[in-house]
Each structure stands twice: as structure tokens, then as C-alpha cells.
């Protein structure tokens, strides 16, 4: 057996030609899927925006994908991105315990807003605030993190610097009052919020290590009764929802058997403002989620229970 010196091996490897990385496929319209989504959205009482892209093949379908819609709680994804960017820079520490500020002045505490029941002087680690923001969509934790990263302006600067021209925080952000009156806490487009999820999935958000940690957080949502309910329980999805009276939304990146795909569905100006399970917006999101999964995974026999 011929022995090779380690230094010789390194020189041989350095001299070997590098294999070019295969670029992702360009997005192109899937006419069958586009027709299906058009049929599902037809007759909806309100505005609808949809963006779908199958990452391995580039097959896509869009509907008002570049129109601006309210984010509701989906704005927590941009807050998360800004948080991890500041952690990467050493400006914040995920393990640091921070004292609860009595200046948030948030009056509408939901039953799942764990942090809303804290009092001045109580502390939590920054990482736990991020967990609560994403897992149970704790609004108080989210506003606390928004303040910690420097407010909505800091989030907007990060999004703008990374090519997201419409995704913005409006609430508690000077100069965004007019936009807040129209869109509420935040605004985005189906394409932008979906591609923010893709950026995280592909390790391009902040750093590969930060992207992995953010992605793990996004797969832990407590809220699984809308889009995720239409996926097999064995299929993982990173997801964030946003629900307010006249807008229902969800963005999810699904690790499906035939390859990852991203889906964003956002409604606005709904006439159905109820929060019952059969709200028209919820029904649309479920129908779209089910149709997209079955379209990309036609050989999977699993179907959601009625």
C-alpha cells in the first residue's frame, strides 16, 4: 500500500478543480397549480394574496404576490431576524436575563401572552422571549424584543438592507403612523415574507448557525390548526401565523417528501371577522395548504381527517 504524506494530500486537494455550485432553479409558473389556487380563491369575500415556490424545481404559483397586506403576528419573523443579527454582532446576548420593562403599555394581553402577566423587576432570558414570541405568538414578548433591538426602525433598516422593500414594522415606529392606520403592526407582501423564510431555511439569514437556530424555533409553533393541520403529522413545517379581525395569514416552509416548498397566504378586508374555526379566511388557508401539499406530493396517500 502506498503511503501519502498529509502535506501532499493537502496540496493535491488544493490543486483539484472546484466543482461549481448548482444555482437554484429559476421560478416558473406551474399552470395547473395556478388554476387550482385561482379556483379556491374565487368568490372570497375580501382580498387574497398567495405565493408558492417549490424549491428543488422552481415551480411556482402567485396571486397578488407583490401587493401589500397586513402582517399581524407574521411581523415577528422580521423581529427575529433583527434579533439574531444583533446577537451575531455581540450587541445582544441570548442567554442574558433582562428585566421586564414597565413602559410597554400594552393593554390587550391575550391568554397565551405569558409575559403579560409579569411585573416590573421580573426577568427572562432573551432566548426565552424569542421562544415565546414564536411558539405561542406572545405579543408582549414580541414588543419587548422589538424594543430591545432598537425599535421598529432597526427592524426596518435590516429588512431594507437585505432587499425587502415592502416588509416594515409600523407600530411604535416614528414616521410609520399613516401606514399603521392602514396595515396595523406591520406590512409585507406574500412574496417577501415567504422569501424571508427561504433565506432562513437556506442558511443565508445572518449566518448559517443563526439560521439553523431560527429555523428550529419556527418549527415549534403551538398554533397548528390552520395550514399545518393539512399536512401529514410526520412532515415538519416552519411556520408563523397572523390573525386580526379582517386579515388572516400564514407563511410556512414545508419539508415535504418531494422537496421543500414555501407557501404564504394572506387575506385583507375580510367581511368575516369571527374567530371561529370555520372563519372564511381560515378555511381558505386550509384549502390552499391542502391543495399545495397534494399537488407537490401526489403519491402521498395521507389525507386530513374531516
UniProtKB/TrEMBL annotation:
Membrane spanning residue stretches: none
One GO MF term attached to the UniProt entry: beta-lactamase activity
GO biological process: beta-lactam antibiotic catabolic process; response to antibiotic
SUPFAM superfamilies to which the protein is assigned, alphabetical: beta-lactamase/transpeptidase-like
Keywords: Hydrolase, Signal
EC number: 3.5.2.6
A Pfam family matched in the record: Beta-lactamase2
InterPro entries: Beta-lactam/transpept-like (IPR012338), Beta-lactam_cat (IPR045155), Beta-lactam_class-A (IPR000871)
Catalytic activity: a beta-lactam + H2O = a substituted beta-amino acid
Residues making up the signal peptide according to the UniProt record: 1-20
Beta-lactamase class A catalytic domain sequence ranges: 49-267
Protein name as annotated: Beta-lactamase class A
Source organism per UniProt: Longimicrobium terrae
Amino acid at each position: 500500500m502506498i503511503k501519502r504524506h498529509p502535506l501532499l494530500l493537502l496540496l493535491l486537494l488544493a490543486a483539484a478543480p472546484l466543482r461549481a455550485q448548482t444555482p437554484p432553479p429559476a421560478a416558473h409558473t406551474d399552470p395547473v397549480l395556478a388554476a387550482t389556487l385561482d379556483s379556491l380563491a374565487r368568490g372570497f369575500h375580501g382580498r387574497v394574496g398567495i405565493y408558492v415556490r417549490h424549491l428543488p424545481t422552481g415551480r411556482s404559483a402567485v396571486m397578488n404576490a407583490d401587493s401589500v397586506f397586513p402582517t399581524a403576528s407574521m411581523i415577528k419573523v422580521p423581529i427575529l431576524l433583527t434579533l439574531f443579527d444583533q446577537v451575531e454582532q455581540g450587541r445582544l446576548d441570548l442567554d442574558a436575563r433582562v428585566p421586564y420593562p414597565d413602559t410597554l403599555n400594552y393593554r390587550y394581553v391575550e391568554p397565551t401572552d405569558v409575559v403579560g402577566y409579569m411585573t416590573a423587576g421580573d426577568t427572562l432570558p432573551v432566548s426565552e422571549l424569542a421562544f415565546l414570541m414564536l411558539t405561542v405568538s406572545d405579543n408582549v414578548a414580541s414588543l419587548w424584543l422589538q424594543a430591545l433591538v432598537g425599535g421598529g426602525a432597526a427592524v426596518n433598516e435590516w429588512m431594507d438592507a437585505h432587499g425587502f422593500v415592502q416588509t416594515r414594522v409600523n407600530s411604535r415606529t416614528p414616521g410609520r403612523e399613516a401606514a399603521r392606520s392602514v396595515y396595523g403592526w406591520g406590512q409585507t407582501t406574500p412574496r417577501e415574507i415567504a422569501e424571508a423564510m427561504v433565506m432562513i431555511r437556506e442558511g443565508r439569514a445572518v449566518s448559517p448557525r443563526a439560521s439553523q437556530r431560527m429555523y428550529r424555533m419556527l418549527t415549534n409553533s403551538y398554533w397548528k390548526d390552520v395550514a399545518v393541520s393539512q399536512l401529514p403529522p410526520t412532515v415538519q413545517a416552519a411556520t408563523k401565523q397572523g390573525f386580526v379581525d379582517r386579515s388572516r395569514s400564514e407563511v410556512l416552509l414545508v419539508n415535504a417528501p418531494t422537496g421543500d416548498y414555501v407557501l404564504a397566504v394572506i387575506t385583507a378586508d375580510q367581511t368575516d371577522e369571527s374567530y371561529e374555526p370555520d372563519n372564511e379566511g381560515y378555511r381558505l388557508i386550509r384549502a390552499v395548504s391542502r391543495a399545495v401539499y397534494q399537488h407537490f406530493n401526489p403519491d402521498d396517500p395521507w389525507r386530513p381527517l374531516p
